[in-house]
Amino acid sequence: MAYVDGFLVAVPTANIEAYKKLASAAGAVWKEHGALNYVECLADDVPYGELTSFPRAVQAKDDETVVFSWIVYRSRQDRDAIVAKVMADPRLQGDEWKSIFDGKRMIYGGFEPFLEL
């Protein structure tokens, strides 16, 4: 079964177009290096919960939009090899992202699917 990396980040709403451009470029690099699927989603119906929620998880401010993303790979082994290539790719070596969103509030991790219908 596949392997999935998941990401959650708050992006200032004023920077959404810049984020989309960066995500498109990054997604192309991930796919070129072997990722099966690369998806970026803008929050549309994510209420600020009393205890937990997507906005709370990334400490989203009133002028920020939550972005939920995932990348699919054939396996954990493929993911590890692809991420190493992506991180070494000179097209993604800049600090452009730092002016678009606060990476310190990004949540990410790898997941092994157990059910796909």
In short:
This protein has 117 residues and is of the alpha+beta class. It has three helices and four strands; from the N terminus they run E-H-E-H-E-H-E. The protein has a single domain (3-111), classed as Alpha-Beta Plaits, CATH 3.30.70.
Any descriptors?
four-stranded antiparallel β-sheet; 3 helices; 4 strands; Alpha-Beta Plaits; DUF1428 family protein; 117 residues; alpha+beta; DUF1428; 26% strand
Enumerate how many helices there are, as a single number. Answer: 3
Oligomer: single chain
Q: Which structural class fits the helix and strand makeup?
A: alpha+beta
Order of helices and strands: EHEHEHE
Overall pLDDT, averaged? 95
Helix content: 25-40%
The amount of beta strand, in percent, is 25-35%
Label the overall shape: globular
List the helices and strands and how they pair.
Layout lengths: L2 E10 L3 H17 L4 E6 L11 H4 L6 E10 L2 H13 L18 E5 L6
Antiparallel strand pairs: 1-3, 1-4, 2-3
InterPro entries: Dimeric_a/b-barrel (IPR011008), DUF1428 (IPR009874)
Protein name: DUF1428 family protein
Pfam family, one: DUF1428
Would you kindly provide a written description of the structure presented here, covering whatever features stand out?
This protein is of the alpha+beta class. It has a single domain (3-111), classed as Alpha-Beta Plaits (2-Layer Sandwich). Helix content is 29%, strand content 26%. It contains three helices and four strands; from the N terminus they run βαβαβαβ. The protein has helices at 16-32, 54-57, 76-88; strands spanning 3-12, 37-42, 64-73, 107-111. A four-stranded antiparallel sheet has the order 2-3-1-4. The model has no long low-confidence stretch (mean pLDDT 95).
